[in-house]
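Can't paste images in this forum, so I'm doing it all in text. The chain is below; anyone willing to post the predicted structure tokens underneath?
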Amino acid sequence: MHSIIGVSSLVDFIGYKNLKAIPVRIDTGARTSSLWASDITINDGIATFKLFGPSSEWYTGKVIRRKAIEIREVTSSTGHVQQRHVVRLSIRMHGKRLNAKFTLSDRATQTYPILIGRNTLRGNFLVDSGDPGEAKLYKYPEEAEEFKERYKK
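Text version of the structure:
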């Protein structure tokens, strides 16, 4: 049985007590999930990074080390192509524990610090594109109005 979720959610990072209820954008158009990371270095197959960036309210400065599982070519919605390192992190979303793969990227200019793609969603969730979800971060006020008009819970 798949849970039906909206286009935003809140995620807890398992094993990190200060990283709870982080807003994420659900994006079925993206294959891979993406995580805002800063100070990224790769040495001997190990990615060392900090979650988020100093300008983020969720930034702790804590250094994280994870095996870099692969390098993935990612194409943005504007057609820009980047090579990104992929790491695996355990998260909890809507009560489900997920061992998710994330590309590490600078999401400082994005509304959401984390994007959850279809590989993480597959087999776990169905997405209702009319439901604003739990996080409800809006870049433009008219987005909030659109959801109010279309989706009344």
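The longest helix spans residues 141-150. The radius of gyration is 15 Å.
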